[in-house]
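Our consortium's second objective concerns turning raw sequence data into structural hypotheses that experimental partners can test. To show how far this objective has progressed, the report includes one record in full. It was chosen at random from the queue rather than selected for favorable results. The single chain below, 301 residues long, was entered without modification.
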Amino acid sequence: MPPKNLMTRRAPAWLLSLTLALAAGGLAQAQPAAAPEAPAASAAHDVPMASAVAARPPMAAPTIAPPASEPVANPYGMRSVWAQGDLVARTTLLLLALMSLLSWYFIIAKLLAQGRLNAQARAAKKAFASADALNKRVEGLSKASPFRFIAESALEAARRYYSLAGQVDMNSWLSQDIVRSVGTLQMRSQEGLSVLATVGSTAPFVGLFGTVWGIYNALVTIGVSGQASIEKVAGPVGEALIMTALGLAVAVPAVLGYNWLVRRNRVTLHAVKGFGSELHTLLLVEIDKSQRAAASASQVV
């Protein structure tokens, strides 16, 4: 039996070997847990790559356009008024369209006619400013010029004066003929203006008639259906409002055109009357010269 002191000396050695064995087993089990440290080391080498990725600008998100909405047709426009309107409504629309066409036709035609008359007035003033004989001045005017018509009529009146046997003096005779020619030209220049005045005064009432008829149709629709909803009366009420707008749209240009053309006519006729006055004076001078020449010739004989 070994002595106690030997056992006590060997016991720590046994415990030490057991402790070392357990520690070695623990290290063997703990060794795989240390493997994840390798990516940490490689992460240090990947810092430049990560910084390059971070420096790259972010990609813009694609914009998604909303679906295009198709235009919705107006169910209460002019097309629906014509399609759903009865005989009275369509007749009113055609009448307003005809009145509008007439008014615009006469506005454009009168503007062109007044432009031609102003050009002819300038040509007549230039021709009569020369020192030629009166007959040559008149022949220098255009055959379509109304100023040539006035001058030729006055010359013909001067030639017919001597058949009156002195019943009327030359001054009054020529003045009457020139005034009559200027009045004829004035009547021609006012053609079409009465149409504009008629359209401007009656078109609002035609549109008002269409408005009343549309309201009547709306009331009939309410009475038949027994409902006063907006779906039932929107069509007839819209038709009534459109008729009112069309009446005003036809009347306003006609009234403005009438006033504008009347003012332009007044300015042009002022030039025509001035030409007639100048022609009257020139004719009296020509007749006086011819009479003096005839008297001097008779004295010489």
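The partners drew two points from this record. The radius of gyration is 54 Å. The longest helix spans residues 230-300. Both points have been shared with the crystallography group to help prioritize constructs.
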